[in-house]
Design a protein that fits this description.
With 778 residues, the chain is an alpha/beta fold. It contains 26 helices and 22 strands. Helix 1 crosses helix 2 and helix 13 runs parallel beside helix 17. The radius of gyration is 30 Å and the shape is elongated. Its cofactor is thiamine diphosphate. Keywords: Lyase, Thiamine pyrophosphate. It holds the Pfam family XFP_C.
Length: 778
């Protein structure tokens, strides 16, 4: 008890000091205004509770020799996690100038939320972290993702009661129905009820205990309560709760692993009730602070200007008795460190929080084993994602013993034509089953739940702890995780600048059931804007690929699955799609990222083209090829160049993205003065934004999705958005100088074809035969 309390007090002292102190870290002289930071930033309210958890995790990790990781849901409590990593020595190992003495303590305090220092949250700079926590809601999903396929790992997860009000966190309670007690580790949720958010009470803290227990038991947990404001009482209760929880976890693992018990365990959850801002100022300026929302951030805001606030701050800091906790040189005394584990057992030094140290290369098989034969372009069709599914099944099979690859998705694996993976692994499921259920498997590695948030959180936690995966999702609904991918991209960008963080496997999205083939579901299912969102983010991290057929999808997927530290977005269709390139051609084309399909155009090599038809995406590629076919038939003297873009970032200048083209490459591909008719998969203004600095931008005319969606036929979707072959031919006639007069009759035929289309689909409910039966047979 003495050593636990000493460690906790030391962590509290360091946490408060980081918010306030610029100098005089050990209070060896009376506190003066010049010792205080000019801008006071940080979150005190949650820090004492986080320090309590860290202290007691230290004890059980050391006593039981555990591999453990902690997800700090209230990530704004950065001062506490920084304090604990400094105390245990892991911080100084990563940042040798922040020594574990008075000089290092002063630097630790000074750098917090200070220019040139470290952020106020549990950011990538903090050893032992995989969760930033700036945006609340994702901690429990990350914790379960970290525990998957790590059978010896304990993942503690502190959930703030404000965070517990979010939708993603509420959905994450169901993750225990997917946790395999045989092959996965354990998650210990610690619901920290300190009563308040920034300015309001929290819902769960105001529930009667019986109602809260009923809620948690309904989620499949057995609650263990710890409550109080007397440190000695709380220490005893917390120690007992930790031991009880870990004993129950050990019993569940033994039953499943040694006795073959298949019933889903009721996992423990600790409900911790302590005052917000515990041990801080009880009252400031006549207003209660400790135990209220007023302690959320900086309890004493006027310390530099208000002598009474300065006096209160000094009394607060001295209440921890720092002279008992640190020696004359500022080093933690033996009592403070008595409960701290050693080596990689320390929470700040665990390799599970630096997953690049654990990751192994994924055994991606040779693509030729899965490639579709292409003797002539545009004469055969395949479902690209079905072809990819065969490759993913092999990957799943080849990782069966090492269990470091997972496929996640919101109830759409089969819908997205990836069901071949079920031949290698079923769907993870620990709840009840019925005879008519298919592919459910207690040990499965396909993760399906109708929550994009939970899928994303699982995969992020899985990747950050050293494994591989793929997230398959309907294109329109991946927007649900826009904020989550923001945070992951920021994490990767920061991690790349930290030499001690090893690269992790990339976060790979497969977006399918896309905008152009949601003709049956209608407008609500049609939104290609995730690509726009991602390309706004850090260019060194994000990659966007639009493979036009099955073999290019295989090539792109091969690259993405092997890559590190990226967010790869792959947009590909699941409906039958023309095969344009052989496997060898696909490899070369994808390596270029953008290139001329000379077989599709009518250039003779002796002069510049009259027009460039460009495309990105499978349906736009088909429409461009059909338009080129019409031009070849009706205007054979026209020199047409066809350019296909797989890697969308190639359109950016090389100074703005690592994959960007220099001006010579771009001009050689698209010309500087010829019309470019660009058929794009998504919103057309994205292409303009990517290429607006190019010499020939004024000649660029982009067709794409313009929010003209409904339930209709596949071809009517492109007609409604003016992306169809007939409109593209009309665009060529309108924009090639002199052609408007010479080709008036051709333009009229194209307009008439659109009119016939409208009449035909309203009578027959299907597309025109000339469209539905079209193949490339030039």
């Amino acid at each position: 008890m003495r050593t636990l309390d000493a460690h906790w007090r030391a962590a509290n002292y360091l946490a408060a000091g980081q918010i306030y102190l610029l100098a005089n870290p050990l209070l060896t002289e009376p506190l003066r205004a010049e010792h205080i930071k000019p801008r006071l930033l940080g979150h005190w309210g949650t820090s004492p509770g986080l320090n309590l958890v860290h202290t007691h995790l230290n004890r059980v990790i050391k006593a039981r020799d555990l591999d453990a990781l902690c997800i700090w849901g209230p990530g704004h409590g950065g001062p506490s996690v920084l304090a604990n990593s400094w105390l245990e020595g892991s911080y100084g190992e990563k940042y040798p100038d922040v020594t574990r003495d008075a000089q290092g303590m002063e630097l630790l305090m000074r750098q917090f939320s200070f220019p040139g220092g470290v952020p106020s949250h549990v950011a990538p700079e903090v050893p032992g972290s995989i969760h930033e926590g700036g945006e609340l809601g994702y901690s429990l999903a990350h914790a379960y993702g970290a525990a998957l396929d790590h059978p010896g790992l304990l993942v503690a997860c502190v959930i703030g009661d404000g965070e517990a009000e979010t939708g993603p966190l509420a959905g994450s309670w169901h993750a225990n129905k997917f946790l395999d007690p045989v092959h996965d580790g354990a998650v210990l949720p610690i619901l920290h009820l300190n009563g308040y958010k920034i300015a309001n009470p929290t819902v769960l803290s105001r529930l009667p205990e019986a109602e809260l227990d009923a809620l948690l038991r309904g989620y499949g947990h057995e609650p263990i309560h710890v409550a109080g404001d007397d440190p000695a009482t709380v220490h005893r209760a917390m120690a007992q709760a930790m031991d009880t929880a870990l004993d129950r976890i050990a019993e569940a693992h033994h039953a499943a692993r040694e006795e073959g018990v298949t019933e889903r365990p009721r996992w423990p959850v600790i409900v911790l009730r302590t005052p917000k801002g515990w041990t801080g100022p009880a009252e400031v300026d006549g207003e209660p602070v400790e135990g209220t929302w007023r302690s959320h951030q900086v309890p004493l805001a006027g310390v530099r200007d208000n002598p009474e606030h300065l006096r209160q701050l000094e009394a607060w800091l001295r209440s921890y008795r720092p002279e008992e906790l640190f020696d004359a040189e500022g080093r933690p005394v033996a009592d403070v460190l008595a409960c701290v584990p050693e080596g990689t057992r320390r929470l700040g030094a665990t390799p599970y929080a630096n997953g690049g140290l654990l990751v192994r290369d994924l055994p991606v098989p040779a693509l030729d084993d899965f490639a579709v034969p292409v003797d002539k372009p545009g004469t055969t069709t395949h479902e690209p994602t079905r072809v990819l599914g065969d490759l993913l099944a092999r990957v799943m099979r080849d990782t069966a013993s090492r269990r470091d690859f997972r496929l996640v998705g919101p109830d759409e694996t089969a819908s997205n034509r990836l069901q071949a993976v079920y031949e290698a692994s079923g769907k993870a499921w620990q709840a009840g089953t019925l005879p008519e259920d298919e592919h459910l498997d207690r040990h499965g590695r396909v993760m399906e739940i109708l929550s994009e948030h939970l899928c994303q959180g699982w995969l992020e936690g899985y990747l950050l702890t050293g494994r591989h995966g793929l997230f398959s999702c309907y294109e329109a609904f991946v927007h649900i995780v826009d904020s989550m991918v923001n945070q992951h991209i920021k994490w990767l960008r920061t991690s790349r600048r930290l030499p001690w963080r090893a690269p992790i496997a990339s976060l790979n999205y497969l977006l399918t059931s896309h905008v152009w083939r949601q003709d049956h579901n209608g407008f609500s299912h049609q939104d290609p804007g995730f690509v726009d969102h991602v390309l706004n983010k850090s260019p060194e991290v994000v990659r966007v690929y639009l493979p036009p057929d099955a073999n290019t999808l295989l090539s792109v997927a091969d690259h993405a699955l092997r890559s590190r530290d990226y967010v790869n977005v792959i947009v590909a269709g699941k409906q039958p799609c023309f095969d344009w390139l052989s496997m060898d051609e696909a490899r070369v084309h994808c390596a270029r990222g953008a290139g001329i399909w000379d077989w599709a155009g009518t250039e003779d090599g002796l002069r510049e083209p009259d027009v460039v038809l460009a495309c990105a995406g499978d349906v736009p590629t088909q429409e461009v090829l059909a338009a080129a076919h019409l031009l070849r038939r009706h205007l054979p003297e026209l020199a047409v160049r066809v350019v296909n873009v797989v890697d969308l970032a190639r359109l950016l200048p090389e100074k703005e993205h690592p994959h960007g083209m220099n001006d010579f490459e771009y001009d050689g591909l698209f010309t500087t003065d010829k019309p470019v008719i660009f058929a794009y998969h998504g919103y057309p203004w994205l292409i303009h934004r990517l290429a607006y600095r190019r010499t020939g931008h004024q000649n660029l005319h982009v067709r794409g999705y313009t929010e003209s969606g409904t339930t209709t036929t596949p071809f009517d979707m492109v007609v409604r958005n003016d992306l169809d072959r007939y409109r593209l031919v009309m665009d060529v006639i309108d924009r090639v100088p002199g052609l408007a007069v010479r080709a008036t009759a051709v333009r009229q035929r194209m307009a008439d074809a659109r009119t016939r289309h409208h009449a035909w689909i309203r009578e027959h409910g299907t597309d025109l035969p000339e469209v539905a039966e079209w193949t490339w047979n030039a």
